[in-house]
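Researcher: I'm preparing a figure for a lab meeting and need a structural model of a single chain. I don't have an experimental structure, so a prediction will have to do for now. The sequence is pasted below. Please return the structure as tokens so I can convert it later.
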Amino acid sequence: MHLLKMAERFVETARGAGDRDDSWGREHALQNVCYALELGLKAYLQATGWSDDRCRIEIRHDLVKALAAAEQAGLSAPPSDLAQALKAVSAHYTRHEIRSYIRNEGRQVDVGHIVDETALFLRSARLALGKPNRARPPATGKRVPLVDRSGCD
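Model: Understood. Here is the structure written out token by token.
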């Protein structure tokens, strides 16, 4: 759960940086979202039996690979807008090019919304991990449900 706590702290840092309405704030908010997603997904994977070495070797900093592995391990998929943002930014994140992304193709990304969606997604991962025997996929092959998001607008 240590990684998940760190992930949640990165989301809070992203909120603070995202309060600035300039490219610096957007860049730092998105960078912290990427850190949060990487750590949160790796926390889920480790809770389902992956070792730190396996995460380091197979996932590295690839958010798309981390999400796919976590979903395969039973975590419900994130909302489509977060999944799309994750796919769009992952390659830039692995190459340490978030600034370039924000200044070019990511110029129109609603970073504040992505921060909020990341917080909800990490909350659902925490809830899934906090339930006994829910971190692993059930024998029926059903997905671990996302947290009820009604009323979160």
